């Protein structure tokens, strides 16, 4: 996953990515050099104050204003470029994940994996954004502190001189003792922070899942509001939502405790570091080896070295969250790649645009149970087939197999070509957007005249919707079930598919409307093959071929005389 994320700098977008990255590196390095100039500036400034030199004091202020002006401008450009790079990287990465998720119906097949992926919407929508933001923030921070460590360690080493330490009878000379003091102090603080804060990474990972589950429960409550209110399920839903939220509370309490412990360490470490440099350098100052300006220069240089070495301590919470979202994205990416490597339905199917053929076709459940055993049939274009049988016998699964989306089967079959198939389910899928876009779905860019669209809506008795054709809303909540069925029928008339699959389409409508739907399909799409699932006896009269499943893998096939 990390390799794919970094491949942004090797993609077609690489030139822009590298321009932004190099400019960001340049700004980061320049900021460190400007801070070094400000630290060196302190020597003259405090010395001028100590010597009551007004001219030197005034000159130092002018110098300060010039350095700060460049620093402020550079900071602004660094922020601008970093945010722009974040946006471009997220845009590229989101496109990659969406492409993988939708490739060969991966979003459908993922539900059958042994380890199902929870909340792919959050992983694509939120986790990618957090991954990109934290990755760049941590990377830029690491670069800045690395440059800072190198530059100011050199300065601190130059200012340290030597210190003589008596050990028993020997005297040891330690060059650059201020640098070694900073390293030891920071190493101790980092070790303690990592030891105490290690649980925070696991807690953040768990909390990401808890938040996603709670959000999903809220979305489902809104989606099924009508059914819940009719069932008087308010109390149950409240209990369910509070149960999910209690998981968030429990995990957050653990995060709070760990964060409190880290804050104690970090705060004590930071407060002590403000005087640590003065304590270490004070012997030389009181011996007259250092002037006041040099003491402040040492203090400033030490602060920058300490800040660079304390980067892990200060960023531990962000690192923990970054690792959590990285693990979730890596898991998601691994499962998507696993699906790509599997041999799905297309591997055992062949192409025949005119006839739907099955040869010794056996359909299985994800657990391996046989639903349909060795089915052999041929359905030419323009013909009709009704699939019946008891509930749970595998009718919908067989329909999905014939449509080329169910992966668990053996034998051979001819899958209908892309663009020639249309499903009319019991509850049609209605995308968000204008009514025109809903009717044209899924072929958004198909060119149809307004007259064609209006004619289809008239045929399906939806002429009252014509004035609202370009209004964007959630049409699934603004139309009745019967209107939604007729809307999907209008979609079939406009797209003129060669293969139409009806999955319990007429189960919730009256016999008169059922007859009307099949009559319209027969008149307007005479060359289309119609494959239906249903239990009603009335459906038999609309189909020439009948396939009955018994629920144990067995089946029987019959044909009726052509009318």
Mind telling me the C-alpha Rg?
35 Å
Helical residue percent?
Answer: 55-70%
Count of runs of 4 or more consecutive helical residues: 17
Mean pLDDT: 81
Structure description:
- It is a single chain.
- With 563 residues, the chain is of the alpha/beta class.
- It contains 17 helices and 14 strands.
- A hairpin with a 5-residue loop joins strand 4 and strand 5.
Quick tags:
single chain; 563 residues; alpha/beta; 6-stranded mixed β-sheet; 4-stranded mixed β-sheet; 14% strand
List strands and helices in order, with pairings.
Blueprint: H1 2-6, H2 14-50, H3 54-102, H4 106-109, H5 120-160, E1 162-167, E2 170-175, H6 177-197, H7 199-223, H8 225-230, H9 234-286, H10 292-309, H11 311-314, H12 316-341, E3 349-351, E4 355-364, E5 370-380, E6 384-388, H13 395-402, E7 409-415, E8 421-425, E9 433-434, H14 435-440, H15 450-459, E10 472-473, H16 481-495, E11 499-503, H17 511-524, E12 529-533, E13 545-549, E14 555-559
Parallel strand pairs: 3-7, 6-12, 6-13, 8-11, 11-12
Antiparallel strand pairs: 1-2, 4-5, 4-7, 9-10, 13-14
